[in-house]
Amino acid sequence: MASITLDKLAHSYLPNPQTDADFALKELDYKWEDGGAYALLGPSGCGKTTLLNIISGLLVPSKGHIRFDGQDVTHLQPEERNIAQVFQFPVIYDTMTVRQNLAFPLLNRHVPQDEITRRVNDMIEVLDLADKADRRARGLTADEKQKISLGRGLVRYDVNAILFDEPLTVIDPHMKWQLRTKLKDLHRQLGHTMIYVTHDQTEALTFADRVVVMYEGEVVQIGTPEELFNEPAHTFVGYFIGSPGMNVIPCEISGKTARVGDIQIGLSGGYAVTGAKTELGIRPEFVSLSSDSSGHPVQIEAVENIGRFKIVRASLQGHAINALLKENEEVPADPTLSFEAGRINVYENSHLVRPGA
Ligand SMILES: Nc1ncnc2c1ncn2[C@@H]1O[C@H](COP(=O)(O)OP(=O)(O)OP(=O)(O)O)[C@@H](O)[C@H]1O
């Protein structure tokens, strides 16, 4: 296991990058802790695979260095980095049994036979493959094959890091949550440094201690699931995390008041006026609907019942806004909206600013 330092790392696929936009990965400067579970989360094309390939050694970055426990590995080949990788699709030997597949990475590294037997048995139990252990992989389902792939990564105990690239893509939805939980347990037990690439927020939030949110080649926030929910550092994080995501509404700020069209919304602290593009961010969970005349009049556009909650899609001064109602609550007559002032975030040019800033 190792800490991973991304030292002023950046990558462009162009030979002579000129501007920021030419970089698939914009400059990063972070240290990821030894034994941490990190998820790289973001939409297609945001640079997740580029970063993962730099860590694994498939790609040499155009700028900066990557270090494992302080040792510069920027120019080392993947096989010299002592990492395990699990890909989207199973990478296993069809003609070998489950047991042989799991033992193979250890045999290759000359681990003593009794140690191999112990580790393989543990992994078979953890992955619930006991009844298939001596069957050839060829006849197994896609789910089972991918479990073997996960096992082949996890069975190695001496690796610097285990990298997962969308490993649950081929897994049946019912099985996904089981494997997600299992991976989390394994991380607790084994303490490996794990990096998990996904575009699925549920996978990222359930697996990781810290989620690395990427957007257009930039890491816009690294935080715990709670931090990403409560204080999104960028409007994209607010929008991308949560279902539905955070409401983002253009406004003008003056001290402790935000103006949206004709209405004024009280804030929990005062903000300096800078002339930058300003927006309010408030999660639907903290927007309430009532008939209270102290609230702000709102037009209801639609109500979607999603089980435990209803999503109320509304329009406030011409801006789309979502609120949540419990399943047994109805939209009131002449509805008005109110906001929990302490839950309103303020953004300048898409970045979070704090009161007094
Ligand atoms: N070999 C390449 N040559 C040129 N451009 C590339 C190459 N690989 C990726 N890119 C570009 O770099 C940017 C980041 O791509 P990357 O594959 O890292 O994103 P991603 O977040 O992993 O996306 P996905 O989830 O679709 O795999 C994209 O604009 C992509 O088109």
From TrEMBL:
The keyword Ligase does not apply. The keyword tRNA processing does not apply. It is a peripheral membrane protein. Keywords: ATP-binding, Cell membrane, Membrane, Nucleotide-binding, Transport. It comes from the Bacteria. It is found in: Cell inner membrane. SUPFAM superfamilies: MOP-like, P-loop containing nucleoside triphosphate hydrolases. Transmembrane segments: none annotated. Residues 4-241 form the ABC transporter domain. One of its GO terms (molecular function) is ATP binding. Belongs to the ABC transporter superfamily. PANTHER family: ABC TRANSPORTER ATP-BINDING PROTEIN, MALTODEXTRIN IMPORT ATP-BINDING PROTEIN MSMX. This is ATP-binding cassette domain-containing protein. It comes from Hoeflea alexandrii. The lineage of its organism: Bacteria, Pseudomonadati, Pseudomonadota, Alphaproteobacteria, Hyphomicrobiales.
